[in-house]
């Protein structure tokens, strides 16, 4: 990957001129028979893909109001056209959100609307040809489903919904993506995205206990499959061995230790990530999420806490209650959800983000910190797209922005914000989200990181920032890989709980 | 009574029918299509009343568009606000006696025709001269603007340059509403104006003009952010739990 070069920073961040076709050759690897069939998809592109794809599209239009309304409502105003990090980084016009949507909308108009049937040219309607299908594959795998465009659309049209629908149609005709589908297969087969089997996981956790003991002299435990524990921690599997993820896992464990919380991991649900969302497939989304329900029921836990992972938190916060009943407020007659909700302790939010958990304890004065331990860091915070625009923390709208920042300020002395048009709800994706964190899309990932790298460079130059905290496993993996290409040290990226871990004072509880 | 008047009257009946039935059909489809997952673009209101406020800000002030781009926002808002005034002013051709508040806005409504045209031209300029927007424009996007510009311009011509007999026009429409067809003045500009409006009514429910009802059904804007507090489930999804 050494041949991938970073695009130059824009001296004035104006909108780049179009370079049509500049990314048409960047195509993520296609899944093979084995990978597809393991998920119940056709192994290869089926012969009657045209009719099947149109039929699937018709089905989705009746199942998802979002897709139906979004196909109709766009007026081509262009509000979204300069908002996508992939467009800014690649200048390929098909990476403008509206143009990406139009790849599908043109087909929708041809097959599902009167003007498109009668006057296709007039309204920009197209037949679904093999070229169009290939174009779908290429460009719907150049969208990270980050929802930045939906913030600016006057109708709230969310390209992520369109991308998800397109990927579901592609899967249904045997044209799935290798990276996402392979990972989903691993979750079902082994239990987590990284394919870390149970014994290896146990070894890793034992090793961690030894490491922490060595570093602090204190016996911080990393329990797994403990029945009757109060808290079940669901965290991305990258936290178990990837750098810098693991440092945040140590941070969670220290918080639990410092407050004497009884907690456990689960070998059955050793993964918070849910790539079912990335491929837009409700069945997969649900099936993967149900592991958490099963683990919670089996271990009899009272609370479910989720580690630092962006899309996982969106799925947990926004979808778990729907998919699995992990949450509150189910009808008395809803036996499926009630079965679990009766077990959970509703004095606490269900599910709860680890940042909510930690901030709650900080507010109650249950944790103490040596903030100087983080003095070597001048810290900024990168809002992860799925947390920022697809979820919430705390009791008020926007808590997902305040709570992680509050934690950082509670555990460290030096905090600096990046440019406001690139943070909070307007944050830029890291460039690797939405099922694109694969080496075969390295070119796209580097270019997609451009807008974030530009503003990071600003705070580095102006304030000497040397640490960018984030609460997403994908952001962490993406940045450690692409930041060196932009001339930054890869160790500049880390988790919020990594900072917590540095500063927390562990009693001898 | 002449052939042209009869034709216009009949076309108006058809166009109105297409508009009402088509729009009803679309709205019904949107309302009946389930939204299986909670997908408000956050930060989003936590309560239903908050959602009503968010939607009101969106529909009245175009809040998201304001954040996106001041050119589109200013021209778009100018056009829509002017159009609203112009439509209200036009109620005087369908009511006898004219309602008090319609009479009151009459002077503003007249000049709103000008600002409406200005907004449309500003939007079209963007579509023509900004490379990105030109790229995403289809022929119908240009024609739609042309149609609206035609409606506004022909209306303004009748108001300020070549007057038509508005009393006769009003009598025609008062009769039309009672299913009795009268005579229209034989002015060319009037026919351009009316035929353009007929075209607009007819294509409304099958074109991008559906953004008007669509915005109210957009799940990213009309859902409350309360997934942890209340279980949200679509009927087809609940079926999977059986």
List the keywords:
heterodimer, A: 509 residues, mainly alpha, Glutathione S-transferase Yfyf (Class Pi), Chain A, domain 2, four-stranded parallel β-sheet, three-stranded parallel β-sheet, globular, B: 242 residues, Fumarate Reductase Cytochrome B subunit, 12 helices, 70% helix, 0% strand
Strand-helix topology:
The complex is a heterodimer of chains A (509) and B (242).
Chain A: H1 33-38, H2 49-63, H3 65-73, H4 85-90, H5 97-112, H6 114-118, H7 120-123, H8 130-139, H9 148-152, H10 159-172, H11 178-189, H12 198-216, E1 231-234, H13 245-258, E2 263-264, H14 282-299, E3 303-306, H15 310-324, H16 335-341, E4 352-353, H17 354-363, E5 379-381, H18 385-390, H19 399-411, H20 442-448, H21 450-463, E6 467-470, H22 473-482, E7 493-495, H23 496-503
Parallel strand pairs in A: 1-2, 1-3, 3-4, 5-6, 6-7
Helix pairs in contact in A: 2-3, 2-10, 5-10, 13-23, 14-15, 17-19, 19-23
Chain B: H1 3-32, H2 48-61, H3 63-68, H4 70-90, H5 100-129, H6 131-136, H7 139-160, H8 166-177, H9 188-203, H10 211-214, H11 219-222, H12 235-238
Helix pairs in contact in B: 1-9, 4-5, 5-7, 7-9
Structural commentary:
The complex is a heterodimer of chains A (509) and B (242). Chain A has 509 residues and is mainly alpha-helical. Chain A has helices spanning 33-38, 49-63, 65-73, 85-90, 97-112, 114-118, 120-123, 130-139, 148-152, 159-172, 178-189, 198-216, 245-258, 282-299, 310-324, 335-341, 354-363, 385-390, 399-411, 442-448, 450-463, 473-482, 496-503, and strands at 231-234, 263-264, 303-306, 352-353, 379-381, 467-470, 493-495. Chain A folds into 3 domains: 33-183, Fumarate Reductase Iron-sulfur Protein, Chain B, domain 2 (Orthogonal Bundle); 212-360, Glutathione S-transferase Yfyf (Class Pi), Chain A, domain 2; 366-503. In chain A, helix 2 crosses helix 3 (65-73) and helix 14 crosses helix 15 (310-324). Classes of the chains: A mainly alpha (509), B mainly alpha (242). Chains A and B meet through helix 2, helix 3, helix 5, helix 7 and helix 9 of A and helix 1, helix 3, helix 6, helix 7 and helix 11 of B.
